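Try this one yourself first.
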């Protein structure tokens, strides 16, 4: 079985080793006997409806965000349809911001967003930087933790009633005060956490692969367990680093 991935703007939104996230998805799919086919979709390229089981958007600085924002904003309907159709989405940092309604930078310039995430972002005075630990429960009754590194000036406010990706145990999260981090809209998640994110949080990689396989038409999706000893160790180290900075900043 094949999982079709669209990697959006890989040559613009690629800081913080975001490509590591794709590498993790590729390996974890292959180890289970699935093939991951990654298509680069960039400025002006077509995003064919229903053609992808998983969409990935990485992080970038304001400068790179400005270069791709109008193109991404114009894809709002296509991305919204992909999510409504059950495709998995992972959007990190700069990509996360731009899937919201807009991002306003320090210079006051407002970049349009795709409007598929119920949120907006305005750059603040301070940079929210450091290790970050979340408690998440994407599947009811299955709480888990997510460890990563955040580095953003953007202050993201979720709309009333929007579902965050997780609760901040240590770090800043969306805005440094609400205690929320990221967003979840059905099969789509957005987050500030990178590092890259998936090597130290393999459960999230598998959650995305499961959603993608369902979208690809798999009847029963039960991923074989993998030997995740190294990944678990990486998670423990990152989580401890986040905890050592104390509670919410
Ligand atoms: N515009 C972003 C910020 O808030 C960039 C985020 C990122 O991907 N580093 O700093």
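Now uncover the answer:
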């Amino acid at each position: 079985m094949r999982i079709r991935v669209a990697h959006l703007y890989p040559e613009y939104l690629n800081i913080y080793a975001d490509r590591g996230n794709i590498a993790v998805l590729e390996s974890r799919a292959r180890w289970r006997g699935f093939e991951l086919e990654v298509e680069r979709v960039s400025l002006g390229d077509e995003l064919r409806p229903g053609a992808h089981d998983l969409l990935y958007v990485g992080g970038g600085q304001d400068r790179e965000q400005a270069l791709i924002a109008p193109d991404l904003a114009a894809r709002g309907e296509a991305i919204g349809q992909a999510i409504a159709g059950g495709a998995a989405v992972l959007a990190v940092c700069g990509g996360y911001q731009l899937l919201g309604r807009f991002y306003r930078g320090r210079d006051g310039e407002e970049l349009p967003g795709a409007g598929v995430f119920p949120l907006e972002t305005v750059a603040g005075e301070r940079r929210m930087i450091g290790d970050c630990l979340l408690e998440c429960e994407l599947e009811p009754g299955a709480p888990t933790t997510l460890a990563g590194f955040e580095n953003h000036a953007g202050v993201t406010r979720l709309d009333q009633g929007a579902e965050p990706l997780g609760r901040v145990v240590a770090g800043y999260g969306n805005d440094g005060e609400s205690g929320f981090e990221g967003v979840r809209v059905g099969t789509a998640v957005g987050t500030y956490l990178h590092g890259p994110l998936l090597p130290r949080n393999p459960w999230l990689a598998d959650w995305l692969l499961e959603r993608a396989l369902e979208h690809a038409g798999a009847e029963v999706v039960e991923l074989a367990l993998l030997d995740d000893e190294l990944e678990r160790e990486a998670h423990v180290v990152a989580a401890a680093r986040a905890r050592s900075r104390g509670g919410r900043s």
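Discussion: Residues 2-245 form a domain with the Rossmann fold fold (CATH 3.40.50.880). Residues 59-62, 65, 93-94, 97, 123, 151-154 surround glutamine (CB under 6 Å).
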